[in-house]
Design goal:
Length: 397
């Protein structure tokens, strides 16, 4: 049964690795994902089904989803009442799909799910309606999944391992995966923009990202800025142990640094810190690669390029910003390691909020920068997994 379930999952939409199918997910996680597919319009919608339903054929996706639902109900024992109560969109879709003639050729039948009341089907959070309206009003940019490089950590000096900086093993694994992603994105930028000679990492912490990049790109000068004394001291220790000469570390905040640079770098810049860096890059006309964090404390500069959506965003940002943070979706497993539930609908909602916030961040810099949006993969290495890249317009190659 598990093999059939996993085979079907490989064939269904799995946006940017949302569902880890190396191990068979729980029935509820699969159902949550199916509900999101329905909300995203992947299946037949009411508008596509005419009065004479005999004229309609199910899509291949409908058929695979029907088989998946049949396995879950008949072999995994998920109660039909549970499905109706928790997943009204799936229930509504199953009633429509059962009427299509081609479904009968499958030779299987799903037990009739209890009819969902209209008030249940339409009971949607206010925030979802707001996001729907914004997404209909603007063309959100494509968020490109990063293909991380495979940094051979075994051949690098041990001082570059996050565990050298007293990071736990489980967190070190996630941190390495994050660095693999940003190193890949950084490599693309450097390959196409050979004018970049000096890079400043704001909020560098113990130097996890900046020191690795400094070793991989000895031709580039790196300046690491960290105002926390202990983290800065650890960074200095690692630099001395590594003996590398193309990197300097200073105990300064972003506003205190007066040196020149070509590219600003930041991994998990918290809240308004991201917006401060973006504002600096706009005024100084500097390129940047930033992974924002703590969206609930953000204060982005908002452009008036799209007045209708901007007004709606400004009006409801007190709802949108906190919803972009989903640390509550983190859990600890039997080994006390943190993992993130990326299938949970609250994550899907948070991801939409993050995309919209970053869209408006990029919009405010569109007159000076070419903006692109990216996502770290696999997405469960961090809940704050979106990146913004801005290259000043006059050096785009």
């Amino acid at each position: 049964m598990e093999q059939r379930l996993r085979l079907l999952l490989t064939m269904l939409p799995n946006e940017l690795g949302t569902l880890d199918i190396t191990n068979t997910p729980s029935e509820h996680n699969i159902m949550y994902l199916m509900e999101n597919w329905l909300r995203s319009g992947y299946y037949l919608s009411d508008k596509e089904i005419p009065d004479d339903e005999s004229l309609v054929s199910p899509t291949v996706l409908d058929i695979m989803a029907y088989l998946l639902l049949w396995i879950i109900i008949n072999e995994n024992g998920l109660l039909s009442e549970t499905i109706s109560n928790m997943f009204p969109l799936i229930t509504n879709w199953s009633h429509r799909i059962e009427k299509l003639e081609d479904i009968n050729y499958l030779g299987i039948s799903i037990p009739l799910l209890p009819q969902v009341k209209d008030e249940v089907l339409n009971r949607r959070p206010k925030l979802v309606d707001i996001l729907d309206t914004i997404e209909r009003t603007v063309d959100l940019p494509i968020v490109r999944a990063i293909t991380p490089i495979q940094v051979d950590w075994n051949t690098l000096p041990p001082e570059l391992d996050p565990q050298f900086a007293q990071v736990s093993q489980s967190k070190s694994i996630r941190k390495k995966a994050q660095i693999d992603n940003l190193a890949a994105l950084f490599g693309e930028i450097i390959m196409n923009n050979d004018h970049i000679k000096t890079v400043v990492e704001f909020g560098s912490g113990g130097g996890h990202l900046g020191l690795v990049l400094a070793c991989l790109y000895p031709q580039i000068n790196f300046v690491l800025l960290e105002q926390a004394q202990e983290a800065n001291k650890m960074c200095q220790t690692r630099i001395l142990r590594l003996g590398i000469e193309n990197v300097k570390c200073y105990e300064l905040n972003a506003q205190e640094y007066e040196g020149d640079y070509d590219l600003a770098l930041g991994l998990h810049c918290c809240g308004s810190f991201t917006d401060m860096i973006l504002s600096m890059c706009k005024s100084k006309r500097k390129s940047f690669l930033i992974t924002p964090c703590c969206y609930g404390h953000s204060q982005p500069e908002i452009s008036n390029t799209s007045p209708r959506s901007t007004e709606l965003f400004q009006q409801h940002k007190k709802l949108i910003f906190p919803a972009a943070d989903f640390s509550s979706m983190s859990h600890r497993d039997a080994n006390d390691d943190i993992y993130y539930d990326m299938v949970h609908p609250k994550y899907q909602l948070a991801l939409r909020c993050m995309k919209i916030i970053n869209y408006y961040r990029g919009l405010s810099l569109s007159s000076t920068h070419h903006i692109s949006h990216h996502i770290l993969t696999p997405i469960n290495i961090t809940p704050k997994n979106l990146c913004i890249v801005g290259l000043i317009n006059d050096i785009i190659t």
